[in-house]
Specification:
With 488 residues, the protein is of the alpha+beta class. The chain is built from 19 helices and 14 strands.
Length: 488
């Protein structure tokens, strides 16, 4: 048998160069029969020998054993085959069992269900990459709900898949559609299904409470049986991914949901559905849905956070400020897609718009200004209050406050200045200290010493020469020196 190179050369010479088979045979030193054979069949398939396996006589038995329990392990099957004479290994048995399960899964048939009006909602999540908030990326998910009879679609995008977010999306969908169906179908979502053991399903207790509150019956598809809710798989998440998502640009979560609402109104629920041959908005029957409860529970995302000494608490990657009086208290934080609200003992403290960036501080300007105002009054010492009280009878309180603020703005210690001023009051009296307008206790003390202990006038200086004592000098003005100092 020739390898690939001479076979390719035969075809090149015959088809491209148009050589005859005789010429090709002489050129390649091959028989003309060989040339004709490879021209007719460029790559002859080698004959394969039929190999037998030790498992071949037992394949029918393996299929019979798997029929009542398709999930039986290869070890158990081997234990059943060995008394029948099987001497093969576990590896070929595992491979054969795996191929049988694949065929059974691929050939498994199911009955296509067409629910009636108001009978079923199908619900699922879809992942749609992430949104960029000036370098801070947040994952983006789509909550999809399809009404089984009409194929009416509801879509809401979120940045989280938490239980509270999942429930809020339900409530928003029910409110938009105007009611709730008799059944809601889910895949094995952890927010809905706590445990799935064969046909036994244990739902999340909080989710069951929500289902009772809204009066619908939850159902979960079997594992690996996505066709149980194929309408939301294909006509929900898949349709959003193919028809809504391409060639769009978004600024934030609110912009994504705004465009999604417009697309649902103008495109998704107005299209002629290929299976029903009707528009979902025309086929939808509101009168078949169950009514919604009058009062709804609060399903916002909830957390507890401690207000630190810098009047901030941490939530979702950001710092939120609270009133200074709440330092050391644990506040309840409730958040949805639009706002973050802080509560103290069921009392709303402050509400912030939802920020999807990370590492930011919100509300600092408002509450730090309040903190500064509180600290200015709180830091007044008893000496400070006593000085104001002593001087208030002789000077307006505003004047005393302005004087003390001037002292605080200087580079001196305010507490030391106040103590020294009180000492001067005790020494010279309130009436003597009050009119003083010098900033600083040392300057006030100097003025008081000069006023209350004046120096006696000194006699003129007598020189040795009497004629010099009779000289009179021209009057001098110090204004030039004052102007020089003031200009400097």
């Amino acid at each position: 048998m020739l390898n690939a190179q001479p076979i390719n050369e035969i075809h090149r010479l015959y088809h491209d160069e148009h050589w005859s088979m005789r010429k090709i045979a002489r050129h390649l030193h091959l028989a003309r029969k060989t040339i004709r054979k490879y021209l007719d069949s460029p790559a002859p398939v080698p004959a394969l020998r039929q190999r037998t396996s030790k498992l071949d006589p037992f394949k029918a038995t393996v299929a019979e054993l798997l029929e009542p329990d398709p999930h039986a392990s290869a070890v158990v099957i081997r234990q059943r085959l060995q008394p029948l004479g099987y001497q093969g290994g576990i590896t070929i048995l595992r491979a054969y069992i795996s191929s049988l399960r694949t065929k059974l899964h691929q050939l498994r048939a199911f009955v296509r269900m067409e629910p009636g009006a108001g009978e079923r909602f199908e619900i699922d999540w879809g992942h749609f990459g992430a949104l960029d908030y000036q370098g801070d990326k947040r994952k983006l998910y789509a909550f999809c709900l399809v009404e089984g009879h009409s194929r009416l679609l509801y879509v809401e995008f979120t940045h989280r898949q938490s239980f509270d977010t999942f429930i809020r999306c339900h409530i928003h969908a029910f409110q938009v559609l105007g009611g709730v169906a008799r059944e809601c179908w889910y895949d094995n979502l952890s927010t809905a299904v706590a445990e799935h053991d064969g046909t036994l399903i244990r739902f999340n207790p909080r989710f069951l409470a929500f289902a009772r509150e809204y009066g619908f019956y939850p159902r979960a598809c079997n594992p690996g049986a996505g066709w149980g809710k194929g309408k939301v798989e294909r006509g929900g998440v898949g349709y959003v991914r193919q028809n809504f998502w391409p060639l769009r640009h978004f600024t934030d979560l609110a912009d994504v949901n705004r465009q999604a609402r417009e697309w649902l109104k103008d495109v998704a629920n107005q299209r002629l559905h290929r299976e029903t041959r009707e528009r979902p908005c025309d086929r939808f029957r509101l009168d078949c849905l169950r009514s919604l409860p009058t009062l709804t529970s609060d399903y916002r995302d909830t957390a507890e956070a401690l207000v630190q000494k810098h009047i901030r608490l941490q939530f979702d990657g950001n710092r939120y400020c609270a009133a200074p009086s709440l330092v050391g208290q644990r506040l309840t934080v409730k958040a949805d897609a639009s706002s973050v609200t802080l509560y103290h003992q069921d009392r709303e403290v402050v509400r912030y718009p939802r920020c999807w960036r990370r590492g930011l501080t919100l509300g600092a300007e408002r509450f730090e200004k309040e903190l500064l105002a509180r600290r200015a009054a709180a830091q007044r010492s008893q000496a400070h209050q006593r000085l104001i009280a002593l001087l208030a009878g002789l000077c307006p309180t505003e004047t005393v406050e302005a004087y003390l603020r001037g002292l605080a703005d200087s580079d001196r210690s305010l507490s030391r200045q106040i103590n020294e001023l009180l000492q001067l009051v005790r020494q010279y009296g309130t009436e003597a200290v009050a009119p003083a307008r010098a900033f600083g206790a040392d300057y006030v003390a100097n003025l008081l010493r000069q006023q209350l202990s004046p120096r006696e006038p000194q006699p003129p200086l007598q020189l040795g020469d009497p004629e010099l004592n009779q000289l009179v000098t021209d009057p001098l003005s110090l204004m030039e020196y004052d102007a020089f100092i003031l200009d400097a």
